[in-house]
């Protein structure tokens, strides 16, 4: 049984290490969008290259995050966590010195691999290291500090882009890693799951990432209508079919198909796909809209997005408690509808927009919707499967959200009629943005309809409840690991 207590020096070091590590990935997910216009101008990149700057990271992260958690259980959670931190920082350095968009995109894909090793590891270290009596408080402190980091992210990203330059958005991870790694090696105990056995589902992970990459390529490059687009789409669908086949026939699949035998689990993941597809498209385009069409600086654009994260930081725990009393159907229906209303209010945001009159009301409504739905969504995922499989279910839900976001970033500019150079013209981008927001709102309404008709109205008695009560990520629902230690 792990015996590290929260109030001890070692407990403080463990908490610091995991906060530093998880902050690297969380900051990256919130600040890169703010830097995109400057990256595009400095590297003379097309809109497609900017889409790949976001999606190259998401492809490898979404495709490998389930495998990353399994590697930690087998080979040691501290070892894989440290490997993830070093990998992430090295890839960040490559991003920061990339001379052109092609090398930046390749480095972002490598960064996603590091994120897949790092992201599950920080929570797993806390759960495996702290005494059971302190574990819940430690998870709460970790998620709370992570929420503060997420809230600071857009402001920090805007300040870096406006001041030292966009390359420091990536280079900032290097000193964080240099602080995190020695602390982890000195103060964090190693742990592993002695019951972990079987072969790793490397083939499933590769097929999943390959299908996402090929389909993303087809969507981003579809404006050209070339034969390569058709071939990529066909190969992507074939890889997806092969992924399903492999997962159904492996003895130890990365994504166990029988978990979808739960109607509630399947329904919540369908809602997740809709919700996070809309969020992914919204935050990608809004960071560009505020700079390209409205004409704000990166610092102003990054700061403008703070209300959504701050609302989640302050009220997500209360939302989770409320959903325990009402059941998941109501918040999972009302939340997406509020977010859809917020996105429609963004139609007021264009050249000459006022922050208090136009931007802030939309983001407050959007934040209220996110507060309403994110915590209940996570709780419902955990409650819809056996307690022993809660960690796997959370990982699947997290990966599904990230996959939905990357597909939205690839598809939404195409659906909105954005040209390759749309972000260079304020009027062209504003017109495309006005076409994109109703599409995002429509996807959210679809999610609300699915929740109303498919999600059962009452919570399951005796189910697993989330250990994380603060939810601040804008790109995916929070991961929940397996309880207990070695």
UniProtKB/TrEMBL annotation:
Q: Which InterPro entries match?
A: EmrB-like, MFS, MFS_dom, MFS_trans_sf
Coiled coil: which residue ranges? none
Q: Which GO terms describe its cellular component?
A: plasma membrane
> Which keywords annotate this record?
Antibiotic resistance, Cell membrane, Membrane, Transmembrane, Transmembrane helix, Transport
Record protein name field: MFS transporter
Among SUPFAM superfamilies, the record links this protein to: MFS general substrate transporter
- CDD domains xref list: MFS_MMR_MDR_like
Q: Output the Pfam families linked to this UniProt entry.
A: MFS_1
Gene3D superfamilies assigned: MFS general substrate transporter like domains, Multidrug resistance protein D
List GO molecular-function terms, semicolon-separated: transmembrane transporter activity
GO BP annotation list: response to antibiotic
Q: What residues form the membrane-spanning segments?
A: 12-36, 48-68, 80-99, 138-162, 168-188, 200-220, 226-246, 267-290, 296-315, 359-383, 395-416, 436-455
Q: Return the PROSITE patterns for the record.
A: MFS (PS50850)
* Span of domain Major facilitator superfamily (MFS) profile: 14-459
In what way does this protein cross or attach to the membrane?
Multi-pass membrane protein
Q: Where in the cell is it found?
A: Cell membrane
Superkingdom in the source lineage: Bacteria
């Amino acid at each position: 049984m792990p015996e590290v207590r929260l109030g001890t020096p070692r407990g403080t070091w463990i908490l610091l290490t995991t906060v530093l590590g998880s902050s690297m990935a969380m900051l990256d997910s919130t600040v890169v969008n703010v830097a995109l216009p400057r990256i595009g101008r400095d590297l003379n990149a097309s809109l497609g290259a900017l889409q790949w700057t976001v999606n190259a990271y998401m492809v490898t992260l979404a495709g490998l995050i389930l495998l990353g958690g399994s590697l930690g259980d087998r080979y040691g959670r501290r070892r894989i966590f440290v490997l993830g931190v070093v990998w992430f920082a090295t890839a960040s350095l490559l991003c920061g010195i990339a001379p052109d968009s092609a090398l930046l995109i390749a480095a972002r894909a490598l960064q996603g691999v590091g994120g897949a090793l790092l992201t599950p590891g920080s929570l797993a270290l806390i759960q495996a290291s702290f005494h059971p009596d302190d574990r819940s408080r430690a998870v709460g402190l970790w998620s709370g500090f992570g929420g503060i980091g997420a809230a600071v992210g857009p402001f920090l990203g805007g300040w870096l882009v406006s001041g030292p330059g966009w390359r420091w958005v990536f280079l900032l991870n290097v000193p964080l890693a240099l602080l995190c790694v020695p602390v982890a090696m000195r103060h964090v105990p190693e742990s592993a799951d002695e019951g972990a056995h079987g072969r790793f589902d490397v083939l499933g992970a590769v097929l999943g990432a390959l299908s996402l990459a090929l389909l993303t390529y087809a969507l981003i490059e579809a404006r050209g209508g070339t034969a390569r687009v058709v071939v990529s789409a066909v190969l992507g669908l074939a890889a997806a079919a092969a992924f399903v086949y492999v997962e159904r026939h492996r003895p130890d699949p990365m994504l166990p198909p029988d978990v979808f035998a739960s109607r509630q689990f399947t329904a919540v993941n369908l809602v997740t796909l809709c919700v996070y597809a809309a969020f992914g498209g919204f935050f990608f385009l809004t960071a560009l809209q505020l700079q390209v069409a409205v004409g704000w600086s990166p610092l102003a654009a990054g700061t403008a997005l703070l209300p959504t994260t701050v609302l989640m930081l302050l009220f997500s725990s209360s939302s989770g408690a409320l959903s325990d009393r009402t059941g998941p159907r109501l918040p999972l229906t009302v939340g997406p509808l509020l977010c859809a209303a917020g996105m429609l209010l963004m139609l007021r945001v264009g050249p000459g927009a006022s922050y208090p009159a136009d931007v802030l009301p939309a983001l407050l409504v959007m934040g209220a919707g996110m507060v309403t739905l994110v915590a209940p969504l996570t709780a419902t995922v955990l409650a819809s499967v056996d307690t022993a499989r809660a960690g796997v279910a959370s990982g699947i839900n997290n990966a599904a959200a990230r996959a939905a976001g990357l597909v939205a970033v690839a598809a939404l500019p195409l659906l909105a009629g954005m040209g390759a150079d749309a972000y260079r013209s304020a009027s062209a981008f504003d017109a495309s943005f006005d076409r994109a927001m109703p599409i995002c709102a429509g996807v959210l309404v679809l999610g609300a309809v699915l929740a109303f008709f498919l999600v059962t109205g009452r919570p399951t008695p005796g189910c697993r409840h989330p250990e994380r009560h603060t939810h601040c990520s804008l790109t995916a629902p929070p991961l929940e690991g397996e309880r207990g230690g070695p």
